[in-house]
Every structure is written in C-alpha cells, then in structure tokens.
Amino acid sequence: MDLQLKDRVYLLTGATRGLGRATAEALVADGARVVVSGRDAASVAAAAAGLGGPDRARGVVADNADPGTPAALLAAARDAWGRVDGVLISVGGPPPGRITAMTDEQWTAAFGSVFLGAVRLAREVGAVLGEGGSIAFVLSTSVREPIVDLAISNGLRPGLAMAAKTLADELGPRGIRVNGLLPGRIGTERIVELDSAQGDPEAARERASAQIPLRRYGVPEEFGRVAAFVLSPAASYLSGVMLPVDGGALRPL
Ligand SMILES: NC(=O)c1ccc[n+]([C@@H]2O[C@H](COP(=O)([O-])OP(=O)(O)OC[C@H]3O[C@@H](n4cnc5c(N)ncnc54)[C@H](OP(=O)(O)O)[C@@H]3O)[C@@H](O)[C@H]2O)c1
Question: Ligand 1 centre and the CA of 191: distance in Å?
C-alpha cells in the first residue's frame, strides 16, 4: 500500500526517542519530511541527524509546556519546506504514583505539558492545516481503563481524548482529521523506567506481559507504523478514533 507520504511534512513533538521517534522513522522511511522536537538540545540534534539530516529532518528544541512551541515548530517546517501536513503530539509521561500521593505541583506541571500543551499544539497547528491535514495525539490505554500507580495519566488522558474527539468535530468540515493513539506497553525508555520503579524490572515485565493477549510488549516500530498510517493520506476516512496499539490488552471495546 502506498501511504502517499512522499514530500509531505509532519511535526512530531517529544520525538527524540520513544514513540515519537519511532513514528518519525516510519514517516521518513516512506518519503515524508519531519520536524522533531524535545527539550534537550543534544538529543534533538542527534535525532535530526539520525533521521537523515537537513534534507529529511529538522530539529527544534522546545518544551510542549511552552506557549511558543507551536509557532516555533511551524516556522521550522515552513522555513525548510514551505508546507505542513500534520502533527503527532507526544510528550514525556507524567510521574507515576497514586492519587493519594501526588502533589498539587505534580498535577499542575503535568497538566501544563501533557494536557494544555497538547491542546494548544493541536489548536495552533490545526488553524493552518489544509484539506487532508492530520492531527494525532499519543495518549494511553488509561483513556479507557485506569492503570495502577499512574494516577495523573488516568486523570488527564480521558479528558484529552474527549478534547481530541471534539476537535475532530470542529476541524472535520475543513477536511482535517483528528485521532488518538492508545499505546499499552511498548518497550521504550519510559516503560523501562516505569518497570524499574517497581523494584525488579524483569519481574514487572513478566507480570505485565502475562496480562497481554499477545504475551509480550510491543516494540516502538510497531507503534510507529500504526501512527504513520493514521497520519498519512492512506487513512483519509479515519477521524475521531481512539486506536489502541496494545497487543489486545484493553478489555473494554
Ligand atoms: N511507551 C508506552 O508503552 C506508553 C504507554 C502509554 C502511554 N505512553 C505515553 O506516550 C508518551 C510517549 O511515551 P514514550 O514511551 O515515547 O516516552 P519516552 O521514551 O520517555 O520519550 C519521551 C520523549 O518526549 C520528550 N519530552 C519529554 N517531555 C517533553 C516536553 N515537556 N516537551 C517536549 N518534549 C518532551 C523526551 O525528550 P526530552 O526529555 O529530552 O524532552 C523524549 O523525546 C508519554 O506521554 C507516555 O506516557 C507511552
């Protein structure tokens, strides 16, 4: 199948590693150009170089919590290639912990980067996308089912999914699609950190894998390919969908 990505330009936040980076790799492999962001300058430079250098990938050092980030990303794409076709909004996950242990400061910081940062990016990028534009939010299976010890994710992601669904209504008449991706356990550094926080990371991985119908964690490339398809024109009638990429782990339909 031709994803029709050749020379299309996508913005990807939180894309120096993990799910954002894997999606950038899948897009570039099929001929797209990308602007990738993260907060650490060295990681941003390494990611842009690893994705093919200035002809294929540009890097922007930017924090999703910063109100100036959408404009900086859009400017980088316009300066390099004069067009923008979509955005993948990923960001570092909120800290683990229970509701009874999380502080106001932790909630406020996570709201700024995970929630408001994502809504702002979608709003500002959506305002300039043309017909065929595509916005994808990297969310979590916590949209549908609470995850033990990830209280802030459980609190913020369902609301973000409903914001994405609402935006699909608002932007659909302009031919712009909006979707959410719900990763379960994909083996990125974030997941290694979460497993390590439980003491014995190998035992944590075995316990979690036993709950997944496919009996294993996903690899980032498996997420990246799905996300690249959702962003691409090949998915031209897919909008307002929250799509699990979880090896069958979610029990609700
Ligand atoms: N991996 C999974 O299976 C899984 C499952 C459910 C949900 N998720 C969610 O999916 C998202 C991505 O997960 P991941 O596994 O790819 O995480 P990851 O491996 O920790 O990668 C996060 C990426 O985002 C960047 N980043 C972090 N905070 C940022 C900020 N405020 N502004 C801009 N960039 C930022 C990081 O670089 P810098 O730190 O240098 O900025 C890095 O490039 C997270 O929100 C996570 O909670 C992941």
Answer: 10
